[in-house]
């Protein structure tokens, strides 16, 4: 990925990633976690959010706008690379916690589609089926498969 | 066939492993998001055909506990076995299976071999000397 991104750290299983967003609202700890979805042994959900200091749980809905959304999304994309380097033959699924956030993912993927397609097959869910991702289509959810 | 390679392959990113994250990695940090994903995938399941019709869990990367754990769980699910079933077949305690699948640190090779034998899965180790 050629985009600017934050450095990040991971755990030994490479299923949890952590990085610090820096912007007008200060330094915000962010975490990305991959979890197997229900009744599946190969589809992992990608979720990320802010970690509140002193608490175990991550804020599941609110993600602080630190004016660095592109850099944050590029960092999340880089964690997908590391995750799929580790876990082969898996799909990584992503859906926003709100429609607006799904739209933000859509914009982020569209902006970086050429880079993403170097490494992944990218799919979006539209009108009841999974199709190859194309720009300017309002998808409900996404998944990627490593090439 | 499940293949575990211990060949060090080049990675795109050098990522620091932070021991502090190990414990949190075992917790579900985004329960609502996972629930939403599960609900969505019930109506929009992803066909496994997309993986070139491959149903094997082939892992070729640096062996560590996480990868072995992943292989065991994946293979068990492919065999439609519960933890209890596998423990019974392998002649080990259920806690041994649970521990392995949740990335416990101490894994006896003998137990791993028993488990894969019970799963009727061939285990191949590939050793390549680095130049």
Textual characterization of the structure:
The complex is a heterodimer of chains A (147) and B (131). Chain A has helices spanning 69-86, 99-111, 113-119; strands spanning 8-10, 16-23, 26-36, 43-51, 58-59, 91-94, 120-126, 129-132, 142-146. By secondary structure, chain A is an alpha+beta fold. In chain A, strands 1, 2, 3, 4, 5, 6, 7, 8 and 9 form a nine-stranded mixed β-sheet that branches. In chain A, strand 7 (120-126) and strand 8 form a beta hairpin. Chain B is mainly alpha-helical and 131 residues long. Chain B has a three-stranded parallel β-sheet with strand order 3-1-4. In chain B, helix 4 crosses helix 5 (94-101) and helix 4 (83-90) packs across helix 6. The radius of gyration of chain B is 17 Å and the shape is globular. The relative contact order of chain B is 0.20. The interface between A and B is large, with 50 and 50 residues. Strand 1 of chain A pairs parallel with strand 2 (16-17) of chain B.
Explain briefly what this protein structure is:
The complex is a heterodimer of chains A (147) and B (131). With 147 residues, chain A is an alpha+beta fold.
Index terms:
heterodimer, A: 147 residues, alpha+beta, 9-stranded mixed sheet, 3 helices, 9 strands, 26% helix, B: 131 residues, mainly alpha, 3-stranded parallel sheet, 6 helices, 45% helix, 9% strand, globular, disordered N terminus
């Amino acid at each position: 990925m050629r985009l600017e991104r934050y450095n990040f750290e991971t755990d030994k299983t490479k299923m949890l990633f952590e990085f610090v967003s820096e912007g007008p609202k200060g330094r915000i700890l962010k975490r990305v976690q991959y979890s197997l979805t229900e009744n599946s042994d190969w589809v992992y959900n990608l979720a990320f959010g802010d970690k509140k200091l002193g608490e175990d749980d991550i804020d599941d809905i609110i993600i602080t706008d630190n004016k660095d959304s592109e850099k944050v999304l590029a960092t999340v994309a880089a964690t997908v690379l590391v995750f799929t380097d580790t876990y082969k033959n898996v799909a990584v699924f992503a859906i926003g916690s709100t429609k607006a956030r799904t739209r933000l993912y859509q914009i982020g993927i569209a902006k970086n589609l050429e880079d993403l397609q170097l490494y992944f097959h990218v799919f979006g869910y539209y009108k009841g089926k999974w199709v190859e991702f194309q720009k300017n289509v309002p998808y409900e959810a996404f998944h990627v498969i490593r090439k | 066939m499940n293949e575990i390679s211990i060949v060090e392959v080049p990675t795109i990113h050098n990522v620091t492993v932070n021991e502090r994250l190990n414990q949190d990695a075992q917790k579900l940090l985004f329960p609502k998001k996972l629930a939403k994903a599960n609900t969505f995938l019930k109506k929009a399941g992803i066909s496994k055909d997309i993986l070139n019709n491959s149903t094997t869990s082939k892992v070729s990367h640096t062996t560590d506990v996480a990868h072995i754990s992943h292989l065991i769980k994946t293979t068990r699910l492919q065999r439609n076995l519960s933890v209890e079933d596998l423990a019974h077949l392998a002649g080990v305690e259920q806690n041994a299976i649970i521990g392995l699948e949740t990335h416990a640190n101490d894994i006896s090779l003998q137990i791993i071999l028993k488990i894969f034998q019970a799963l009727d899965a061939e285990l191949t180790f590939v050793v390549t000397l680095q130049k």
